[in-house]
Amino acid sequence: MSRPAPASAPPAAETVGVSLRYGRALALDGVSLRVPRGAMGAVVGPNGAGKSTLLKVLLGLDDGHEGDAYLLGRPALQARHLVGYVPQRSTVDWDFPATALDVVTMGLYRQLGPFRRAGRAARERARAALAEVGMEAFEDRQIGQLSGGQQQRVFLARALVQEAELYLLDEPFAGVDAASEAALVEVLRRLNAQGATVVAVHHDLTTLASYFDWIALLNVRLFAQGPLAATLTPEALQAAYGGRLPLLATLAPEEVRRAV
Amino acid sequence: MIQALFDDVAFTILLTGVLTAASAALLGTFLVVRGQAMLSDAISHGVVFGVAVTFLLSGVAAGPLQLLGAGAAGLLTVLLTEWLAASGKVKRDAATGLVFPALFAAGILLLNLFARDAHVDAHTVLLGEIGFVWLDRVTLLGLSLPRAVVVLGAVLLLNVVYVTLFHKQLTAAAFDPVMARLQGLRPRRMTLGLLALTSLTAVAALDAVGVVLFVAFTITPAVVGRLAARRLPSMLGVALAVGVGAALVGYPLAVRFDLSIGGSMALLTAVPLVPLLLLGPSGALGRRLG
Amino acid sequence: MPSEPLRQLLLDPTVVTVALGALLLGATAGALGTFAVLRRQSLLGDTMSHAALPGVVLGYLLAQGRSLPAMLAGALVTGLAAALLAQLLARRRGVKHEAALGTWLGTGFALGVVLLSLVQHQPGAGSAGLEQFLFGQAAATLRSDLLLIGAIALLSLGLVALLFHRFELVTFDPRFARAGGVAVRVYETLLTLLLAVAIVVGLQLVGVVLMSALVVAPAVAARQLAGSLGAMLWLSAAVGAFSALVGALASAAVPGLSTGPTVVLVATACAALALAFGRRRGVRLEGA
User: Fold this and answer.
1) Cβ contacts from A onto C, under 8 A
2) Cα(A88)–Cα(A155) distance, integer angstroms
3) Helices (H), ranges, C91-183
4) In Å, how far from its chain's centre is CA B200?
5) Complex prediction ipTM
6) Contacts of A95 in chain C (CB under 8 A)
């Protein structure tokens, strides 16, 4: 699905030897991630593997780590505004007095510059983004009154108006209904087909192979990364999960076989 | 003719109330949606410490120096609370309940001991004297104006400019600070500015409505706004209308029944809560009827 | 040997009354504050104490004069009403807990101020006795008040002693307690009621504006030093009693010094010392 990037192009997202401690516990240990341009990628691993933490490091939201992070070939802090970021749903204040359209319009605030108000043109663009995720009928709905999946679609629309080259999503399908999940995947695929790189924190191994074409297996350390077919091996999964998911044994081989 | 207007006691009192209510509602809306309503309580109490110290150090009981000195104390209250909570030894609510009463108590004692004859005394600081603000006057542009009107007017202008210029940044910082940071909208600086303006406003309103009624003007109209509106701009509009309306109605009511003016104005901000709580979608009556 | 003026002061019956009253209510507020701090109800305490003001004035109006039982009963009623209303308001979409508390703190106090101004203009009814409730006044404690304060102290502390283990469980891990068949709601309500009592009992000495600090500061101090809930309770009571006593005597001795702020500063100083030098031993009772 993804187009091969020129060999000289820097990775879309990269970390070099990133380590991070929370107190005595090691959250990330020497992680050197290289997501190639044009990838439809997933960061996979068990709970507490440091997936969301790695995303934070990439976005320059963590100050306490060792190692460096780069986005689109530039130090993360200088390029993070070019990223369309979709946070975990649980981190957002859904009681906030804003409609779906208001939320999407917020994605344009940087482009508008410090002092310009969001005028008609901005709201038209926000409307178009809502339409792209199939939420145009809900633009006037207060965000708290949307379902989990609808909220996630609105957040994806907010990332869309940024017209980013790189989209980072933190558990985009958690607590999302099937219809919304399908809509989200479709939009992500379309973006990817247009050349954007997508990286999602993901933990549903059953859908992994059908949604993504590139994966990184993370459990504090990076166990494997690369094109899905070559990377999603039973051995690598076993190593990363350390036998922590009994379900894995029954699901993974079939998935792997299908992928290969 | 303009001078005559400002010599009119009733007009001056009404204007002081309106200016206070408008500033407080403007800032309160953002504090309330951020879930930080009680910071206005901490700030307005902390400001008293600054008033006392500024007075002791410089003999100044009004004016720009007092605004800055006491405003700094309001900000200090928040920072001290944050620092204490970040130490992990005390939970945030207890840190709040420890820091601002201590600064307020220290301020009151300093005023008790060293400022007995000055126009800043403990009683005024607590309750304000909106009925007497017209006595303290300054000359500006050839007009003799009540000091409170001038100061509160200037502060309101500052607040309006800030909220208008940074409406987007303030909204984004309140709704999703992480996204705001990623987009370079500087949410931390915006928040600091909001708190600094809350401190300045608390100082400016001190003579008129005192420490606690300022909290009422800040929080209640914003809460009414939140209950009545679904979008931030309309919430802001409702909050402003409620605050200003309460000031305008509160004064004649207080005069008619010989009641505390500041207290009546503050109390009226809560009146719209009665129907909203009883009849709203999940209100007691609404539930029974619906 | 104390100097002559100091001895005189200590033997003065008025001073003895004030000191006894301060000791009792300081200990009560301190002890009950333990639960308030552990259950993160410091701001609720602040709301209840401000909202107690209209109750004090209503009590005064109903009793047609300064009757401490009536005023404290009124304070308890309006303080609890504010807590209830805050709970009701916080259930509304978009209204956060803090905003709900702040709303009734401000509204309650405003109502109190309006009622105060009403009383002020009543013929013959000097409001001087009521204004004491703003910042507190040590000298206002009468001998007859001691009986009431003592009874409240005995009753509430006795209840804590009786139900100590239940309160401990509910404060520490309400979910576990519920799973174990404990009527958590009942005990939580009881604890909130006791917080209201702790606040009301000290209003005359410390005043509505600062009373919540006398509930919070001793518990914060004790929290840094004590290793168990029982120890924290005793220590908090001791710090509360000490602060109230020192503050009351100092403000009685130095004319013009408001009692409430003095008491609160002593209590905060204790907390600051404990925070700086106490090696906090993990109290078992720390919810997450």
Assistant:
1) 7
2) 10
3) 97-120, 128-135, 143-162, 164-172, 174-179
4) 9
5) 0.93
6) 93-94, 96
The 3-class SS string of C32-58 reads HHHHHHHCCCHHHHHHHHHHHHHHHHH
CA distance A166 to chain B (A): 13
- Which whole number is the average pLDDT over C153-177? 90
Is beta strand A34-35 parallel, antiparallel or unpaired with respect to A40-44? unpaired
Minimal Cα–Cα distance from B265 to chain A, Å?
A: 26
- 10 Å Cβ neighbour count for C284? 10
Distances (CA, A) of A137 to A99, A167, B18: 12, 25, 41
pLDDT at C27: 95
Q: How far apart are CA A201 and CA A205, in angstroms?
A: 12
State what percent of residues in chain C have pLDDT above 70.
Answer: 91
Interface with chain C: mutation pick from A95, A141, A142, highest number of C CBs within 10 Å: A95
Q: Which one, of A224, A230, A235, lies nearest residue A259 by Cα?
A: A230
Q: Do A110 and B165 touch (CB under 8 A)?
A: no
Contact B33 A92 (CB under 8 A): no
Q: Which residue has the tokens 């989200």?
A: A184
d(CA B40, CA B216): 9
Cα–Cα distance for residue pair B1/B7, rounded to 1 Å:
10
Contact B230 A142 (CB under 8 A): yes
Which residues of chain B carry a pLDDT beneath 70? Answer: 116-120, 280-290
State the smallest CA–CA distance between residue C197 and chain B in angstroms. 18
Q: CB-side exposure of A214: number of CA atoms within 13 Å?
A: 23
Neighboring chains of B (3 or more beta-carbon pairs < 8 A):
A, C
| pLDDT tens, residue by residue, C44-71 | 999 999 999 999 999 999 998 888 899 9
What's the domain range around B79? 2-289
CA distance A146 to A225: 36
Residues of chain C neighbouring A144 (CB-CB closer than 8 A): 93-94
DSSP state of A142: B
Q: Does B98 touch chain C (CB under 8 A)?
A: yes
Angstrom CA distances, C32 to A63, C50, C185, stand at 41, 18, 18
Residue given tokens 């409307």 in the structure block:
A127
Residue A251: pLDDT band by 50, 70, 90 thresholds?
low
DSSP string, C216-255: HHHHHHHHHH-SSHHHHHHHHHHHHHHHHHHHHHHHHHST
Q: Tell me the chain B residues in contact with residue C217 when contact means C-beta distances shorter than 8 Å.
A: 98, 101-102
Q: Which residue has the higher pLDDT, C132 or B233?
A: B233
In terms of CA atoms, which chain A residue is nearest residue B184? Answer: A81
pLDDT at C124: 56
Domain count, chain B: 1
CA-based max dimension of chain B: 62
Q: What CATH number is associated with residue B113?
A: 1.10.3470.10
